[in-house]
Amino acid sequence: MTFTFRPLDPLQDAELLHSWVTHPKAAFWMMQDARLQDVEREYMRIAAHEHHHAYLGLRGGEPAFLMERYDPRYVELVGLYEPRPGDVGMHFLTPETDTPVHGFTRSVITAVMAHLFADPAVSRVVVEPDVSNKVVHALNEAVGFVPEREIQKPEKRALLSFCTREQFLAATGAAI
Predict the structure, then answer these.
(1) Which of 25, 2, 22, 11 shows the shortest CA–CA distance to 54?
(2) What is the pLDDT of residue 1?
(3) I want to staple 144 with a disulfide (CB 3.0 to 4.6 A). Which of 65, 89, 124, 163 is the partner?
(4) Beta bridge partners of 59
(5) Which residues, other chains included, contact 92 with Cβ-Cβ below 8 Å and sequence gap of 6+?
(6) At residue 31, does pLDDT exceed 90?
(7) pTM given for the model
(8) What digits encode the pLDDT tens for the residues 116-163?
(9) Residue 110 and residue 172: Cα distance in Å, rounded?
(10) What DSSP state is assigned to residue 94?
């Protein structure tokens, strides 16, 4: 599967995002009760942030998933681990669909990782999924992530995990 990425437009894309983040499948996104205005506000905040960026992943030119990239020195993980030069944080969300495609989510996380590692400044990707999100733990492992330890964030107990460029390439054989 081939994907492209474009910056998220908080106002234009808010309705689509709202349908994704409030769906029961997106429970770990913690926006189940968000109103459309809440989603607009959150993604306008991200768009204005120097160290946090949101993108839509496109398949055939159509929005297929959400990806966020952040600098863990300033966002999400401040004070929770010792960042290294070249660290980048990542979140991704694949929406619920009536017509699931086998292997889609694995293709998405592989594309997200390849996109992040296409930046030569990135040497390691950091993630902090909820400790109970076993589906994402398996996907992370499939692309080379190694869990380090559990951490307590204000909103959740998280599994701090890392993936170097070398681990990603060894796990997936992907081309960057």
Answers:
(1) 11
(2) 79
(3) 163
(4) 62
(5) 57, 65, 66, 67, 68, 108, 109, 112
(6) no
(7) 0.93
(8) 999 999 999 999 999 999 999 999 999 999 999 999 999 999 999 999
(9) 8
(10) P
- Rounded Cα distance between 112 and 114, Å, is 6
The share of the chain scoring above pLDDT 70, in percent, equals 100
Closest CA to 53 of 112, 131, 133, 130: 112
| Strand pairing category for 52-59 and 4-7 | antiparallel
What is the average pLDDT across 60-69? 96
CA dist., res. 35 & res. 41, Å (int): 10
Give yes or no for a contact between 10 and 48, defined as CB atoms under 8 angstroms apart.
Answer: no
Distance of CA 4 to the CA centre of its chain: 15
Task: Please tell me the number of Cα atoms within 13 Å of 147 on its side-chain side.
Answer: 15
Question: By CB neighbour count within 10 A (0-12 exposed, 13-18 middle, 19+ buried), where does 27 fall?
Answer: middle
Residue 137 C-beta-side C-alpha neighbours within 13 Å: 12
Beta bridge partners of 65: 57
Whether the Cβ atoms of residue 93 and residue 26 lie closer than 8 Å to each other: yes
Contact status, residue 47 vs residue 10, Cβ threshold 8 Å? yes
The residue type of 37 is Q
Structure tokens at 87: 């660290």
Name residue, tokens 């076993």: 134
